Each structure stands twice: as C-alpha cells, then as structure tokens.
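so i finally got all the pieces together for this one. its two components total, 297 residues if u count the protein bits. some of the lines might not be protein, just check the labels. i wanna see the whole assembly predicted at once instead of chain by chain like last time, that was a mess tbh
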Amino acid sequence: MDTPSQKAEEIQLQLDNLRASIREIAHEINNPLGILRMAIYFLESTNPGPEKTAEYFKVINDGIDKIEHNLNRLRAVREDPTQKLSDLPPATKQ
Amino acid sequence: MLYKKPLSVGQVAEICRVSKKTVLNWIYDGALKAFTTYGGHYRIWPANVKRFLDAAGMDIPFDFVDDRTTHILIIDDDQAYSQMLRDAILAEIASVEVVTTDDGYEGLMLIGEIRPQLVILDIKMPKLDGFQVLELLKTRKTEHDMKVLVVSGYLDKSTKEQISKTIAEGAVDKLTDTSTLLKTIGAMLRSEKPTVANNGQSK
C-alpha cells in the first residue's frame, strides 16, 4: 500500500503530465488557428485570383483537419485515461 | 556628398567633426548603432548616422540613400504558416524580400548569407529549436543590424520569461491578428521597439 507521501508524489506526477499535455495541445491547436486567421485576413483584405483563393481554401481545410486531429487525441485520452497524449501521434505540420 | 554604403568610424568622425575616440564612445554607449565586420572593424549604416544626428540634435547636413534591400528571414518548421506570413508581408510591406526555411541550422546559414534586417523565429522546431537558435545568434548579432521577433504557437508565462532573457526584441503569439502582426513587423523594420506581443500585450 502506498504511503501518503508516495500518493502525493504520484498525484504531483499526474498533475505535471496533465500540464505538459495541456501545453502541448494548446500549441498544436494554436498553430493551425494562426494559419486560419491569416488565410481569412487574405480572403477579406486582398482580392486574390481564383488560383490563390483555391490555395487559401486548401490551407483552411488542412488547418481544420489538424485541429480535428488534435481534438481526437484529447477524446482518446478522455475515453481511456491510461492513454498518454504524448503517445498519440501529433498531426503532421505540412 | 551622398552616402550609400556603411561608413567607417573615421568617416563618421569627419562628418561630425569629432575624434574617432568620441565616435567609438558613442558606439560603446549604444547611442550610435554600429555593426562589426569580420575583420573586427565597426561600420555604421547611413540611416543610423542620420538617426543619431537627429536624436543628438546635431545640426549637420547629411545626405544619404540607404541602398539596403530589406530582407526578412522566417525560420519556422510549419511551412504552411511561413508561406502565409510571407504572402502577407509581401502584400502589405513595400520593398522587402522574404526568405523562408523550416530548419534552424539552415536559418543560421541564411543569416550569414542574406544578412536579414529581421528574423522571424518559431520556438518549437525539431533539430534546433528557437531558443538554441537565439543562443547561437547571441554571438553573431553584432555583425549587422538585425532584429529578432519570436512568433510562437503557444506563449505561456514561462516561455515569455525565457524569451525576455534572450536577444529577441519581441514575441507574438501565432494567434495574434494578422494586421497587428504586420504592424509589429513594420515597426521593427523601422527600428521601433515592438509594441505588441501575445495578442496585443507588451513583451
């Protein structure tokens, strides 16, 4: 049986892991969000031709896919608490 | 005379009618911005001479054309973000060339090659991360007039504290709205202190 200090240590470790995971997921979601924001700025403030517009829409779609992938990682951890976020593959950056 | 190229300490001394030692003291004090050549000599861009004369209230006629092409280097492993930012800069800021790389090592080499006025640097990168790049740049930074803006996907308190201890002049979150980000970049190119960081807060 764990002593109170062992239990406290274990809780602290879990908290540290949770903090690291939150930090990682925030980073992984902020990156594509930044791209979405920039793509929308372009579509709003410039008058891109059809080719560029198609390119920006692709960038927006890819960004949404990355965010969805990261939300699925979060879901996987919620459904199976033994899963670690770091064990689930991140979305590729490109 | 129309000055175009970087000036030596002697030339600045002649223009200001002071001794070389006085000019060196201005450089040591940080009042006159200079860079060091590979041979260890100080050189001063004409725009920095003009800025100094104006700030010091020295009424000395000084004609110059700063013939530097403004180069910006983006170091970010997220190529989609780099490309978007490159397009945004080219659309909104006149007379700039923007080079991108997804690799910190290549970024360091490009700094030596193109001598950019501004480096936009991501933090979280494989191989060589942004902090390692900043550390390696510490020794090179005096070689030419260069600023570093960190653009990161996640700027928490500890990351901002860590950045404030580096040579980077500013830091912005990638979620910062694009027009604010472009204003920050423009201000840094005009040698103004960055006014925004992390969604509008100061560094």
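Residues 79-92 of chain B form the longest helix (14 residues).
The two ends of chain B are 41 Å apart (CA to CA).
anyway lmk what u think
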